[in-house]
Amino acid sequence: MAPDTARPLRLEALAYGGDYNPDQWSEDVWDEDIRLMLEAGVNLVSLPIFSWPQLEPEPGVFDWSWLDRVLAKLWDAGIRIDLATATATPPSWLLRAHPEMMPMDADGHRLEFGSRQTYCPSSPVWRENVARMTRAMAERYGDHPGVVLWHISNEYGDHTSRCWCPESARHFRRWLRDRYGDLDGLNEAWGVNVWGQRYTSWDHIETPRRAPGPINPTKLLDFERFSSDALLELFQLEVDVLREITPEIPVTTNFMSMFRDLDYWRFADAEDIVTDDAYPDPADPISHVGAALNYGLMRALKGGQPWLLLESSASATSWRDVNVPKAPGKMRVDSLQAVAHGSDAVMFFQWRQAKYGQEKFHSSMLGHRGEASRTYQETKALGQELKRLEAVRGTRVRSRVALVVDWDSWWGSSAIESLPSQRLNWARQARAWHRAMHLLGQPVDAVRATGPFDAYDVVLVPNLYIVDTAQAAALTAFADGGGHVAVGPFSGVVDDTEKVHDGGAPGPLRALLGVEVDEQWPHADEAAERVSYAGAEYENPFWGEWIEPDASTEVRGRYASGELEGRPAVTRRSAGAGSAWYVSAILEDAGLVAVFRDVLGGAGLPARAEANVDFESVTRSSADTDYTFALNHGREPLTVTVPEGALDLVTGATTGATLELGRYGVAVLATPRAAAPPFLTLAP
Ligand code: GAL
Q1: Pairing with 490, which of 25, 61, 144, 535 sits 20 to 30 Å away (CA)?
Q2: Are both 532 and 421 inside the same structural domain?
Q3: CATH number for the domain that contains residue 647
């Protein structure tokens, strides 16, 4: 399909490869690397991500020779390069000359050299050196024909996402000035009359270091926003240098899936191509469900444009307490799941398994046993298989359901110490609501709280603690136009300065939902509360609300135990041509599935009759063809009802009425593009 970005990836195939660290090996190994890469179908590698000290061993003295040689070998072999700017690891000489650029924790301790990302994002000396190094890389390699992508820094915020040092405090003050104009504005926004916190000088404002008791919530929220912005500035600084020198090469920085600390909506706006690092835990039998939501975000970040899975693991990671390997076939299904969800790449950390250092136990495409290693055998097979799936490159996922992802509400519901319950937060709610949709068989895109919603029939708002009038207006317009909205608990509570909306929750969503929340009603962990819905009872862990529906609102579910027994829990209102649901309780999966089945039904969307967490199906479409992926994430075989006569790109066979998906089985079914994407179900 035609590329839909101004700076497309110049690679005429699904990308396949991984992080490559040749500077950890002697040069004779490089030739073997390239031979085996070619054998495995590798066409893209990321380097030199952590090599600044090897490239500039002394201030201003560069040694490009080894990188020149590696890039030449890769180019000769036809392997393309995702060239890193190498700014994720400050050299020790820089830190020792400028110890003030070391990050500081909330207790005021500096973090020492000896790992990576040892920098304060706000440090002027760090920024100056980052710009200098990026410029040096771009000037040296910007016209290298093999470079198809700039890999800026690495996983911003992975280790250092917040810094509490004096330089960060100065930067925080500047950021606050920009936001509030003057001290009166800041004092008003932060509600300083509570606990006597009026500021009379900007210099009195510090980062929210550890304090004797709970810290001003608006200050905490602003510090989250500021910290994300501080890293965004650092990113933008590199983007600007690269756009100046190599305006035709796309830029990216690798995201960390659904990562709390950075507002990826804003980061994605700054780059050309979204790339993601995904490490679903093989020890968790439903980690693919979380991965699906992460990928729903990745494709949404640039409006549905294909993204690239830039890192994943061939088998075990090494940073968990227990690093369980991937069983045979698991790496394949995990990789193809990302492709199903819109990735035009399958890449790994890393190509060759390290011999030493922090990541020597992390699996790689080429394991310690070399060619004989199981991961290499599976790597080779996957490389071949991707060639058969080439037709899906550039196509877009079609989802009818979207879920609102909002960092402000995520931070607001998780950074603050004084909340009705620490159990409820945006991420937990989003995961649970998405899981229910997964069980019903509907893939889910992420979407901003302001939309655009026009591609969707159903919009889920699992929690939106902070709501402004623009968001409420967008959701209301969606329902008025025939859309179906479901809103979860503790939504519409405060404005963007953390002030409770007049009249309480759901604030600006009150008219849409037709309910008022009298009181939030979290309950003790051990209280086994229940909610009844459509004739069945479901567990309602840790949260309820005393709600008062208005006359236009139908009560669809009620609290079935505890102090709220008999009171409304789940409501529905016809809103314009659509509907608005309010789910004030938490609800175990089965309860959410029951509610969402009705939401989907009302929207005219299909839902699976039988919930099976292992089964997933997602459709990517070109102008004329639907490519429907059927994935079995489990070990038990599944029989799936499929469109008859479809071409399975995996096997080359034409389908009958049903299809067997073995353990970790995958099929990719090509059918003429239909008005609605094919909806696969388990055979009865
Ligand atoms: C990522 C990181 C890689 C590697 C990998 C291991 O977070 O970007 O450099 O450390 O994890 O899983």
Answers
A1: 535
A2: yes
A3: 2.60.40.1180
> What's the 349 CA to ligand 1 centre distance in angstroms?
6
DSSP for 144-191, please give it: -TTEEEEE-SSSTTSS-S---SHHHHHHHHHHHHHHHSSHHHHHHHHT
Tokens of 50: 């952590």
* pTM > 0.70: yes
Could you give the maximum distance between any two Cα atoms of the chain, in Å?
Answer: 78
**Total domains, the chain:** 4
The CA-atom distances, in angstroms, between 290 and each of 68, 218, 285 are 40, 30, 11
What residues make up the domain containing 668?
A: 615-682
Average pLDDT over residues 231-258: 98
155 lines ligand 1 (CB under 6 A): yes
Cα of 374 vs centre of ligand 1, distance in Å, is 21
Pocket flag, ligand 1, residue 75 (CB < 6 Å): no
Whether 155 sits among the annotated catalytic residues: the reply is yes
Q: Are residues 200 and 242 in the same domain?
A: no
Centre of ligand 1 from the C-alpha of residue 659, in Å: 37
Task: State which of 87, 319, 320, 334 you would mutate to test the pocket of ligand 1, scoring each by most atoms of that ligand within 8 A of its C-beta.
Answer: 319
Alpha-carbon distance 220 to 414, whole Å? 10
Report the atom number in ligand 1 closest to the C-alpha of 317: 12
- Tell whether ligand 1 has an atom less than 6 A from the beta carbon of residue 349: yes
Give the total residue count for the chain.
684
Question: 191-223 pLDDT, tens per residue?
Answer: 999 999 999 999 999 999 999 999 999 999 999
Q: 56, 167, 311, 359: which is the annotated catalytic residue? A: 311
Active site residue 519: no
The percentage of the chain sitting over the pLDDT mark of 70, rounded to a whole number, equals 99
Chain centre to alpha carbon of residue 156 = 13
Confidence of residue 528 (pLDDT cuts 50, 70, 90): confident
Whether residue 329 has pLDDT greater than 90: yes
Tokens encoding 662:
């073995």
Handedness of CA 382, 386, 387, 389 (dihedral sign): positive
What's the pLDDT band for 415 if we cut at 50, 70, 90? confident
